[in-house]
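User: Show me sequence and structure for the first protein, then do the same for the second.

Assistant: Starting with the first protein.
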Amino acid sequence: DEQGSPVPDALVRAIAVGSTEAQAAAGTAITDAGGFFQIDGLAPNTYGIYGYKPGFYTQHTAGDVVHGAGRRNISLVLKRANPGKLTNIVPTTAGASAGVLALDKT
């Protein structure tokens, strides 16, 4: 993370540059207790490396070149997300079920 601590159990995806993040990944891994990961079997190409973990912002690299049968060290720093909050909501009109909220469109 941004404090230098390892982030275990994060999902890491390698996505070919030029593809969208929503497309299938060329390879995936889960970080170990030390925050390390390894993705095997990637074809030579340029990939964006994306990291995901609940409570953290999604982070990615701009593009790392992978050569056949090679090994790359890639550092991906996950940043802790701030707690979310709801804004611009008001109680629904009379007659609605208690506890139901509607978006204030003003």
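Switching to the second protein now.
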Amino acid sequence: FQHRLTAYALVAFVIWHAVQARRRARDRPAARRASWIALLALSQMALGIVTLLLAVPLWAGLAHQLLAMALLIAATVHARRLRLEQPRTAAQASWTAGSPRMARARS
């Protein structure tokens, strides 16, 4: 039951995020990524419902897990790219200027 309620809340948030991203910058890659994540989340929700209605056959349970992994990867990549796309303040730029890890992340 908690899994289902959390999933509904997460899907609602993901759809809200995609709508906001589209309103702010329709043609930006971030808006397209947000829309794809919303589509993945809706697909994951539908597959979860089907899995329950079919009394959890192995193929549906495994597909639900695989789609969850794809959704997690997509959301992680999206969050990382959003963070890299944000303009940095002068203090942030000077603090990370000497960091080789940040230099690799920006390239």
